[in-house]
Amino acid sequence: MRFSIILAITFIFSACSQPEANQTPAAEAMPMAETTAPATNELSAILAAQPEAVQARYVYRHPEETLNFFGIKPGMTVVEALPGGGWYSKLLLSHLGADGQLVGVNYPQAVWPLFGFFSEERIAQLATWTTDWPAGAQEWRGENAASVSAFEFGKTPEDLSGTADAVLFIRALHNLARFEDQGGFLTTAITDSYNVLKPGGIVGVVQHHAPDTASDEWANGSRGYLKKGFVIAQMQAAGFEFVASSDVNANSKDQPAAEDIVWRLPPSLRGAKDNAELTAKMLAIGESNRMTLKFKKPL
User: Fold this and answer.
1) What's CA 67's distance to the chain center, in Å?
2) Residue 91: which residues within 8 A CB-CB, separation 6 or more?
3) For residue 98, how far is the Cα from the chain centroid?
4) DSSP string for residues in 223-266
């Protein structure tokens, strides 16, 4: 597909290899040594202790407002879809605290060949993600941090069923939707989320927001964007109740044209990095317009 995602694959857990989840692109990654972890689970203190490069993204990602909107609190068990390089994971580990659990969940192995740019060697390496990612995440854990584990969609551990307080899909739904007709990947992910949650558990969604005027074909996920109505319908079909929406991550400057993809914007700046004028234009827009939606598993 002409507008298929062809982001660079320089770092296995970057936003390129697993587009737009909580991944931190390799160029942005900051050594944990530069962060002094606060001896508290207070989210505001944790955010204030992050490196400058991380804090620079708050104006677009609003992590404090977003996590508070979803009701994420210390001691919870939180499942984070496509955590990648850990932009949100590093915040959650400290915020959830020693009594909490952070569970990363990745695409099924069958998704990777569909992108069309992963080598067989890279796909084989991703087969061990459920052990590799938690091992890497140990380096992000300071004192009083949550425990870490992982699984793949479609392979939910039995002992995880009915144990999670929340599931977070932060910029993580578009490729599942894009490849839905080739393996039911979106349906599987939403069903797995329903099954891992406790009754009353929350699903939090932050997703690139397609204009309402866009066609369903344009907003099928291949450009990174989905329609709000589509996301709500998919969640309700799986049995979730729609609780509320927030404009905290909205950006009215992002008005994509028919030929646009979300990765034209920062941090990816696809197609603009060698063009100073275009780069400046994309930076002036900022990161994408995002819907922020809260769902609940019925009691």
Assistant:
1) 13
2) 43, 46, 47, 50, 63, 67
3) 23
4) TS-B-HHHHHHHHHHTTPEEEEEE-TT--TT----TT--GGGST
CA–CA separation, 205 and 169 (whole Å): 5
Among left, alpha and beta (phi > 0; psi -120 to 50; other), residue 82 is left
What are residue 166's DSSP bridge partners? 78, 202
Classify residue 295 as left (phi > 0), alpha (psi -120 to 50) or beta: beta
Angle at 108 between CA 212 and CA 188, to 5 degrees: 55
What pLDDT, in 10s, does the model give residues 103-152? 999 999 999 999 999 999 999 999 999 999 999 999 999 889 999 999 99
* CATH code of the domain occupying 43-255+287-296: 3.40.50.150
Whole-Å CA distances, 68 to 36, 64, 97, 154, 164: 23, 6, 16, 29, 17
Closest CA relative to residue 87, chosen from 169, 22, 6: 22
Q: State how far the Cα of 215 lies from the Cα of 247, in Å rounded to an integer.
A: 22
